[in-house]
Structure formats: structure tokens, C-alpha cells
Amino acid sequence: MGDFGSDGSSSMSIVMYPWLAFGHMTAFLHLSNKLAEKGHEIVFLLPKKALDQVRPLNLYPSLITFHTISIPHVKGLPPGAETNSDVPFFLTHLLAVAMNQTRPEVETILRTNKPDLVFYDSADWIPEIARPVGAKTVCYNTVSAASIALTLVPAAEREIIDGKEMSAEELAKPPLGYPSSKVVLLAREAKTLSFVWRRHEGIGSFFDGKVTAMRNCDAIAIRTCRETEGKFCDYIESQYNRPVYLTGPVLPVDEPNKTSLEPRWADWLAKFKPGSVVFCAFGSQPVVDKIDQFQELCLGLEATGLPFLVAIKPPSGVSTVEEALPEGFQERVRGRGVVYGGWVQQPMILDHPSVGCFVTHCGFGSMWESLMSDCQMVLVPQHGEQILNARLMAEEMEVAVEVEREENGWFSRRSLEDAVKSVMGEGSEVGEKVRKNHDKWRCVLSDSGFADGYISKFEQNLTDLVKS
Length: 468
Ligand SMILES: C[C@@H]1O[C@@H](OC[C@H]2O[C@@H](Oc3cc4c(O)cc(O)cc4[o+]c3-c3ccc(O)c(O)c3)[C@H](O)[C@@H](O)[C@@H]2O)[C@H](O)[C@H](O)[C@H]1O
Ligand SMILES: O=c1ccn([C@@H]2O[C@H](COP(=O)(O)OP(=O)(O)O[C@H]3OC[C@@H](O)[C@H](O)[C@H]3O)[C@@H](O)[C@H]2O)c(=O)[nH]1
Description:
It is built from 21 helices and 13 strands. It is an alpha/beta fold.
């Protein structure tokens, strides 16, 4: 190895501070594992509550050290809230306020550790405290390049007059030069983007924060690859005039000593024929907010007649998923359908031979995991960024079927049933087309040199950055 630490040593010292959401923390940790595999040392900052869930993913405990950060209470947040999972969507900005208040603690850590590099995504003040200790900064984005290109580039700036909300049409308008006519939002879908430009006291808007984060870093990094999102990455690079490094999908590979699937799911899944079970999961945050939509999801899966396992957070207004289930549902699906409100080992479930279909909310982490799996995919995105990921998979890559929605954004049990049957039904033309395209992409993405090539190039980019 060359001499690439700023102190002349052969390894780099890195601090990571991701946004307080599991989808982001797990993505940062997967990248940490790849860098630790190459001998670099990482101090990983995270809230105490996240530690138990994230620790098992650390494959290099001697090189990746967790450092817990106290997340202060901010008026309006539920007591003890430390991560996105503890906070309803409409209060997420308060979690960002709480994260900002951790700045003095993080500053002390940087002064003590004097790292070569600091990775962050939401804490846009990192460059201000990293520069004085001689560290270079990388704004690492764990969401799709398409969703950044559509809303979080300087050209997407919107003029908001006297705090007036923008119309759906204004919100849906792609910025000048945006490179796709397929990966876009319908006006009604674009309403979910209003949070991007809305101003909040003390922290400004989400847009301001992200643009500052990307303008002030030394390099922008994105968890994606040229093969799927090259044109969006080029657009971001031209908008920010900053180098854009790509890490590739950064998924954990099968480790010889990896833990096995919890027996309760392994035993349950083993009862069914290969490829017959529908697995439905909606990520680490509560996303299906309305109880009647939650019930429609359950009823749609029931109507498929297939065995199914759902891992989902309860909707608003109830504290458990059981309370939200439709009348008589549990009795009707007993033995073939389970709805579970806790954490499951998603990648291992997707890998299970009995599972043949993944109904996903299209979080970016889930998107990569589903592309690498051999499950058929049904897309039920909820928010702007997830909808764009869905368009990328359904319209550009043609590897999945997106559920049809009514004018008001609602999906019916029938549309979900139809979507699942269209990919699972024997002899279905659509099912065959998406399977064929998905097989091709899986071959490209799971080629042994593919992910390693991205990581090696990324490591070289970091080395050059530290030396510059
Ligand atoms: C309802 C509001 O939620 C709050 O945050 C929303 C979530 O933001 C996710 O991150 C992104 C979302 C979107 C999006 O929905 C549409 C887009 O076109 C772009 C993005 O970008 C990002 C993003 C991009 C780059 C980056 O480095 C990021 O860290 C994120 C995030 O994944 C999720 O955890 C959040 O819950 C919002 O704060 C607001 O205040 C709420 O009202
Ligand atoms: O029960 C669960 C739920 C989730 N997971 C894992 O947690 C991760 C969830 O990440 P996702 O990106 O799919 O979704 P999240 O909703 O949690 O993430 C969030 O940040 C990333 C954005 O793209 C998403 O839109 C946003 O909601 C996946 O790696 C998934 O395998 C589990 O292992 N078990």
C-alpha cells in the first residue's frame, strides 16, 4: 500500500456521522466495512439507541469503533427520540434541529481524533469544524442520484413568496437540464416534495441544508453506479462543480460467519413452496401513515391467495400493527399470512428460497437489495424520493411493476392484488419481461469484479483527495 494518511501512515483515519435514520446509518456502516476491509480506521458516530441494531453489522470491530452521541431533547419531539423511527414524518425537521445541537460534541471528537476524512450527509456544518483540524470532507449521499438531481441542485431553487406553499405543478417542474423524462413525478405525487423548500425556524429548509452540505464539502459521494444513474451523476457534478465519487451499491457480501435467519421466520418460510411467498417490507420508518391505506395493503395481499409476510411500522394513531389490522383478517389468513411490526432480517428473507416476490416501498437500500435478489418486485413508493426510485426501476430499467394509484394517490386492494399477480402469475407476459430484465441487471451488478471495482476506485479517489 502507498503512503496515504495525512500523517504519512498507510491507512486513513475516517469519522462518519450519518443522518439519524437507520436507512442512512446502515448504508454508512456498509461503506465503513468496505473501507475497513482495506485497512482504514473508522470512528462511527451514532445515537445510543441505534447501537444495538447497528452493531451486528460491524464486520471489523477492531477497525470500526462506535462512539455514541447524545441527542438533546428538542421541544415538540417525543421524549427520548433519537432516530427517525421515533419521530412522525411531519416532525422530522425537529430531529434535524436536535442533530445540529450535537455540533460541540462532534467538534471535540474531531479535535481529539484529527481524522483525515469526515463523511456526513445531513450535518451541513461538518466542513466548518473539519477544516480547522485539517480533515477533508465527503458529503455521502445514500439516496438515489435521480432524487438529488430533481430537487437538490442549485437549479432547483424555488422562489417562495411570503412563505406561500407552491402548487403541485410548480413542485413537479424538473430543474433546467434535468436529464430524464421518465424519472419524474406527476403533479399529485410532487405534493410530497413540499417539505423540500418549506422553511423551518432556526434551520431553514431541507433544500438549504442539502445544498449547503454539497456546496461546502471537498467531494460529493453517492451510493450508486454509472450503469444505473450515470446521467444523473453527471448532472449533479455539473451543478455543483465538485468531484462526484461513486461507491457502487455497497451491499454486504455473504460472510462465512454471518448470523442466520431467526428460526421463527426460517421455520415459517420453510412451510411453503420455493418462490411462492410474498415478502412485503416498508423500511425502517413509519411510511404508510393512514390506517385505511394500511388495511388496504393487508387486504390486497390477502386477495392474492399467496402466502405472505409483512414487516411494517404501525400507521398513525395506533401503537401496534395488530390494532390496525382489518376486521377478521388474522383469522382469515391464519397459517399463510403474517403482519409483523418489529425488525426482521430483510436481506436474509429476500434470500430465502420460499420467497418469490418483494413488495417494497423503494427506499434506496431496499432497492439495491431487491435488485440483487431473484425476487419479482412490486413497487409501492410513498414519498418523492421513493417514487423516483420506483420510476427508475419500473420505467427506465423495466425490472419491476409499480402499483396503480387513483387520482387522489390511493392504491386499492385490487390494484395491489393485480400488481402481485402480474409478476407472480404463471405465463404472465409482464412477469416474464421484468424477470428477464431483472436477471440481466442482477448479472451485471453481482459480477464479482463489479462492486470491488467501484470500491477500489472510490478508495483511490479518497487517497487523492487526502493528499491534495
Ligand atoms: C416529511 C418531511 O420529512 C423530512 O425528511 C424526509 C426524509 O428525507 C430523506 O432524504 C431525502 C428525501 C428526498 C425526497 O423525498 C425527494 C427528493 O427529490 C430528494 C430527497 O433527498 C433526500 C436526501 C438527499 C440527500 C441526502 O444526503 C439526504 O440525506 C437525503 C431521508 O432519507 C429520510 O430519512 C427523511 O425522513 C424532512 O426533514 C421534513 O422536515 C419533513 O416534513
Ligand atoms: O425490518 C426491517 C426494515 C428494514 N431493514 C433494512 O433497513 C434498510 C432500510 O433502508 P431503506 O433505504 O430501504 O429504507 P428506509 O425507509 O429505512 O430509509 C430511508 O432512507 C433511505 C431512503 O431511500 C428512504 O426513502 C428513506 O425512507 C434496508 O437495508 C433493509 O434491509 C431490515 O433489515 N429490517
